[in-house]
Amino acid sequence: MLVLWGPLSEGLEALEQSGVFQFRWKPDKEFQMLDYNVKSSEPEAKNKLLLKMEPLSGKVDALRVSIPEAFHDNNGKIYADTILIKLDCSRPAGQLSKTTCASELPVEVVISEDLAFISILPERLIDPEENVAIELELVNPEIGIFQFNAFVREAGGSLHDYQGSWLFDVNPM
């Protein structure tokens, strides 16, 4: 078993919530809401997520994303061989504009045995001035709200830092 770094901070596991009500936290220093783009929010649809990261504080040699349990089985599935790091992503002005990314960074992907985490190891260090996003292809699970959490490891470090969370709502329109 490959261990990339130690356990997560308390309270930062991937979460999921089924039902009609949507609970969101109030922004504070402990939880940082991150932005994302989604192709489809329909249940059981094949989907592509672009998970955008906040600016990095230093050079990064590993990223880690916690995965909600609903994505661990056939109800929802993540395709490891399609995970990419996209660099310098931007969205032109306008609500319907598509986000474009200037380049991709080759990566090695390791999924934990319990399917709770995806560790992404880029082929080179990611510079702090680079705008970073993680692209995932997946099959949406049934209806619910799912929290993915982002962690980074700075070059030469053994600890991971919480970057923020994405709340992904799967709900028929």
**How is the main sheet built?**
6 strands, antiparallel
Radius of gyration: 15 Å
CATH architecture: Sandwich
What general form does the structure show? Answer: globular
Q: Tell me the number of strands.
A: 12
How many H/I helices?
0
Count structural domains: 1
Any idea of the CATH class? Answer: Mainly Beta
Order of helices and strands: EEEEEEEEEEEE
Question: Could you tell me the strand content as a percent range?
Answer: 35-45%
Distance between the termini: 41 Å
Average of per-residue pLDDT values: 79
- Helix/strand structural class: mainly beta
Low-confidence stretches: 1-11, 17-25
CATH fold annotation: Immunoglobulin-like
Instruction: Estimate the helix proportion, in percent.
Output: under 10%
Quick summary:
With 173 residues, the chain is mainly beta. It contains no helices and twelve strands.
Provide an overview of this structure:
The N and C termini lie far apart (41 Å). This protein has a single domain, classed as Immunoglobulin-like (Sandwich). Residues 1-11 and 17-25 have low confidence and may be disordered. The radius of gyration is 15 Å and the shape is globular. It has strands at residues 15-17, 36-38, 46-52, 60-66, 77-78, 84-90, 100-105, 107-111, 117-122, 132-139, 144-154, 161-170. The protein is mainly beta and 173 residues long. The strands form two sheets. Strands 1, 4, 8, 9, 11 and 12 form a six-stranded antiparallel β-sheet that branches. A hairpin with a 7-residue loop joins strand 2 and strand 3.
